[in-house]
Amino acid sequence: MSAYWLAIIVAASQQISVEDIRSAYQQAKLPEAARLLDSYLAHNSLPEQRREALLLAPSVYLSVDRGEDARAAVRELVNLDPTLQPPAGTSPRVRTLFDEERLSVGPPTKATRWYNRPWLWTGVGGVILAGVGTWLLLENRNEAPDGDLGPIAF
């Protein structure tokens, strides 16, 4: 078993806090900080628990050359809150990641109300047309057609 996975298993058996991750990062124990962060994010799925760790994640991941993990953390943060700004004192690389992800997500969209959705009115129109068509067919069914075509002129 690799040391990486062993560290994650050991960390998972302990209660890891964001302060543990921050402390390891500030003490320049970068691989340890990344392992603690991985374990914390793997075992905490609630947005309230993840937010503070995700704010720390880009700096930690970029310091150990895990750019895609840093980008994924920023993407998750931006998806949770598109107006979120990186903390004061954040490095320019992390600020750039926030800006890029915010651009890729686009502006926040308003929720469309049920009565403003086109499929609803398409369905309503189809039901009305089907009802009117059925009514016309049933209404004219009892009348016998004229058997005479009228005079034919050549």
Explained architecture:
With 154 residues, this protein is mainly alpha-helical. It has a domain at 17-105: Serine Threonine Protein Phosphatase 5, Tetratricopeptide repeat (Alpha Horseshoe), CATH 1.25.40. It is built from seven helices and no strands. The protein has helices at residues 3-13, 18-26, 30-43, 47-63, 67-80, 92-105, 118-139. It is rod-shaped and about 105 Å long. The model has no long low-confidence stretch (mean pLDDT 82).
Write the layout of secondary structure elements.
Elements: H1 3-13, H2 18-26, H3 30-43, H4 47-63, H5 67-80, H6 92-105, H7 118-139
Main attributes of the structure:
single chain; 154 residues; mainly alpha; Serine Threonine Protein Phosphatase 5, Tetratricopeptide repeat; 7 helices; rod-shaped
Outline of this structure?
This protein has 154 residues and is mainly α. It is 66% helix and 0% strand. It is rod-shaped, with a radius of gyration of 32 Å.
- Alpha-beta classification: mainly alpha
Please write the CATH class name of the domain at 17-105.
Answer: Mainly Alpha
Cα distance spanning the termini: 99 Å
Count of discrete alpha- or pi-helical segments spanning 4 or more residues? 7
Question: What is the 3D shape?
Answer: rod-shaped
Number of strands: 0
Low-confidence stretches: none
| CATH architecture designation of the domain at 17-105 | Alpha Horseshoe
Strand content: under 5%
Radius of gyration: 32 Å
The description of the largest β-sheet is: none
User: What level of helicity do the residues show?
Assistant: 55-70%
The CATH topology of the domain at 17-105 turns out to be: Serine Threonine Protein Phosphatase 5, Tetratricopeptide repeat
Q: What is the average per-residue confidence, as pLDDT, rounded to a whole number?
A: 82
Order of helices and strands: HHHHHHH
